[in-house]
Every structure is written in C-alpha cells, then in structure tokens.
Design a protein that fits this description.
mainly alpha
Length: about 170
C-alpha cells in the first residue's frame, strides 16, 4: 500500500474506531456537554492521562501508515510488521492508549460508568488480541512476529526499548 493511501485509511479508521470507542461513547455515557467535572486535581490528572494516551495513539497510528505501509484496520493490514516507536516498549500501545483516554475521562468526570466501560473495553481488547490478532500476526509475519512477541510485553511496557534485531526479515 502506498503511504498516502495508508495515511488516509489510518485517519478514517482513527475516526471510526478509537474516535467512537474513546470519544463518542464516553461523551454519551457522561451526558455530553452537561457533564459536571470532578474536583480540580482529578480533572488535571485525567487531562494529563487523556493527553498522553492521545499522543501515543496518534504516534502509533502514524507508525502503521509510515512504517508498516498499511492501517490498523484488519481489512487493510500493514505490509510490514510495525516494531518502531511505542511498539519498541509495548505490543499493544493503541489499546493501552485508548484505555488510558477512557480512564482519564473517568477521572475528569469522576464517572463510575466510564470506569465500568473501560473494564468492558479492556476485556474486549484482551479477547480480540488473544484469539484473533496474535494468531493472524503470527501467520502473517512468522518468525519476525514470534521474536517480537518474545521480547516485547503485550500490556505493561518494557523499561528499555527493544532494538528489534532478531525481528528483521532475513
């Protein structure tokens, strides 16, 4: 896939997937613009968590288009295994970023419904990764993915970046 098409596809998928899961649904759950805010410190912490999650999410999406020459959407996967940027620390930075955005909003609005929603979304992500995504990636990228999977954790980041030497095609 060419980079302009990959960027456009990734942008569209960004709006449709995390835009709905971490944006529209939480907004609806808290009552939209009429939602009361939590006390100041919780709003500040939540804002930092949302901003950090959004930064990681945007960077990860860009990596799929620029490094992988594809999109995060299963219907338009990458041509190459993406192991750079946040993927050097964590195999699932997009999922963790989306959960961070939801949990940050739960803090901003002090919303139990958003916390429960985050738990449900996290469970759905874990099931999807385990039973669909990992087998597909193992089949598509073979040894490179298996080496990556051995060295980079799925849900809690490494403290140091993985250099990826044994995941490069030979």
């Amino acid at each position: 896939m060419r980079k302009p098409v990959a960027l456009l596809g990734s942008a569209l998928f960004f709006v449709l997937a995390p835009g709905v899961v971490a944006g529209l649904v939480p907004w609806l759950l808290v009552g939209g613009y009429a939602a009361p805010l939590a006390p100041g410190p919780l709003v500040a912490v939540g804002g930092i968590v949302v901003a950090a999650g959004l930064a990681v999410l945007l960077h990860a999406f860009a990596r799929f288009a620029l490094e992988g020459l594809g999109t995060p959407a299963p219907v338009a996967p990458t041509d190459r295994l993406v192991v750079g940027g946040p993927y050097r620390y964590l195999r699932n930075p997009m999922y963790v970023a989306v959960l961070s955005i939801i949990l940050g909003q739960a803090s901003i609005f002090w919303s139990a419904s958003l916390a429960v929603y985050a738990a449900a979304v996290g469970t759905a992500f874990a099931v999807f990764v385990r039973f669909y995504e990992e087998p597909v990636l193992a089949s598509r990228y073979g040894r490179a993915y298996e080496a990556y999977r051995r060295h980079v954790p799925g849900w809690l980041p490494r403290l140091t970046p993985w250099d990826g030497d044994d995941a490069r095609p030979q």
